[in-house]
Amino acid sequence: MIDQIRRSSRSIGANITEAWQKRRYTAHFISKLSDADSEQSETQHWLRTAYHCKYLDEKIYKELLEDCKHIGAMLGKMISDAKHWCNRN
Questions:
Q1: Around Cβ 2, how many Cβ atoms within 10 Å?
Q2: What are the pLDDT digits (tens) for 18-31?
Q3: Does residue 88 have a pLDDT over 70?
Q4: What's the distance, CA 72 to chain centroid?
Q5: E strands, the chain, where?
Q6: Residue 58's pLDDT is what?
Q7: What distance in Å separates the CA atoms of residue 89 and residue 86, rounded to the nearest whole number?
């Protein structure tokens, strides 16, 4: 389970990096940010599972979950305002 959390959380940053490289094309940028947000949601799932299986204490679980939610909110803002980030020379 910890391996799943590691993989999905690392994938968030990797997808954001790919999105940045594809920012010349708005649809590709949004697609990669959407992938990052999906990985963020998966990370939340695994954190919840780890907490309910008593692998994480409540304080750490809540802190990590809030971090994920914050990342998700930032990704949502970038997706909704993609034109601001794309096609800038």
A1: 10
A2: 999 999 999 999 99
A3: no
A4: 6
A5: none
A6: 97
A7: 9
